[in-house]
Amino acid sequence: MRECSDISAELESWYGRETNRHLHAAVNRALEPLLETAFGYHLLQIGQTRGQPLYTGSRIGHCAYLAPVPGAGVSAVARHDELPVESDSVDVVIAHHCLDFTERPHEVLRELHRVLTPHGQLLLLGFNPLAPGCGARRLRGFTGHPLWQGLSPVSAHRLLDWLRLLGLETQSLRYLHPLPVIGQGRLARYARRANQWSEAASLPLGELYLVHAIKQVGGRVLPVRRVRPSARLIGLAVPNPAAAPRGDHAA
Fold first, then answer.
1. For the packed helices 156-166 and 105-115, what is the interaxial angle rounded to 10 degrees?
2. pLDDT digits over 200-249, tens only?
């Protein structure tokens, strides 16, 4: 398998295309309501998104951006299966394509589970292997395409089984953006309407899936390797958690 830095750079280039900018916007729209209701001290995003972090809608004061290669706004450079983060220290983790190009998906998930606080929230995005577009990309990988030859997506239902074994309780599963949106003409409008209908009907046809899970306490999970005490991300003075607006719980 090629270096993760090569894959990250090519994935960034792919997201930079016009059709895939709409996909990035769909991800932000899906994350917005989840981030608005997520509170705590620390948020961590893993995975690169062309200098456009996915946590802009979060009320959490301390947000860090970890990627396998340096880039705009990147707080730390590390592998997804070896996070330089203390255990039980992050309230919200956004994992963007962390499982799609790795040969060690279980190790990545264990790391995500390890760094989350009890009742911490995991927001995981990945390519849907049931989507027509994903099948086409895998075929291109077999012919030697520099990005898609490393693609090995995990189905959402298999992922839910893995999360349950780790003690992560799934709250929701959404499929995003089944049809590409090109330009601003009539076809683009039809594609946007079809995407809205498909997402509302929870059809498993979207290019991506978004899984929202919460780390439960008291369950038995597989042991994980401890990170070195010197490799710390959460070492700053802890800020006050963001407070919910007064009107959020009004009857």
1. 50
2. 667 677 889 999 999 998 644 455 555 454 445 555 445 565 555 555 54
Positive or negative, the CA dihedral 160, 164, 167, 169 is positive
Residue labelled with tokens 């597989």:
222
For 95-134, give the secondary structure using H, E and C: EECCCCCCCCHHHHHHHHHHHEEEEEEEEEEEECCCCHHH
pLDDT at 53 over 90: no
Burial classification of residue 88, based on how many CB atoms lie within 10 Å of its CB (0-12 exposed, 13-18 middle, 19 or more buried): middle
**DSSP symbol at 61:** S
Helix (H, G, I), strand (E, B) or coil at 64: strand
**DSSP for residue 209:** E
Task: Find tokens 């683009």 and name the residue.
Answer: 188
Q: Show the tokens assigned to 130.
A: 């049931």
pLDDT on residue 167: 95
What is the side-by-side strand order in the sheet with 168-176? 76-77, 62-67, 42-46, 90-96, 116-127, 208-215, 168-176
Q: What element of type H or E holds 74?
A: none
Rounded to whole angstroms, how far apart are CA atoms 86 and 115?
A: 6
Query: Which residues, including other chains, have CB under 8 Å from residue 187's CB and lie 6 or more apart?
Result: none
pTM of the model: 0.80
